[in-house]
Amino acid sequence: MQVAVLTFDGFNELDSFVAAAIINRLSPHGWTAHITAPTETVMSLNGVLIHRQRPLDFVEEADAVLIGSGIRTREIAADAALLARLRLDPARQLIAAQCSERCCWRSSG
Length: 109
Known about the structure:
109 residues; alpha/beta; Rossmann fold; two-stranded antiparallel sheet
């Protein structure tokens, strides 16, 4: 099982790092998580700069896609060009999302 942990600028470290670490504990059973991002590097909401493990098009071949949250979640969700690059197949892939921080789901009003 290949899992794309979808990670964007402004990401929440809990959503990407903890998820990837827990999934990778299943590597003896054939599970592998990869930090997947649209750019070579992404910066977390706390300024942690990381290099992606897989490019965005990896989501097409992954068996599962886990979408994390961050301070730019609403901006990313409104980016039609970026969303068009996410060629997901719900008939073949497990697709999930998570949000660990209030910064991502706060009311804008």
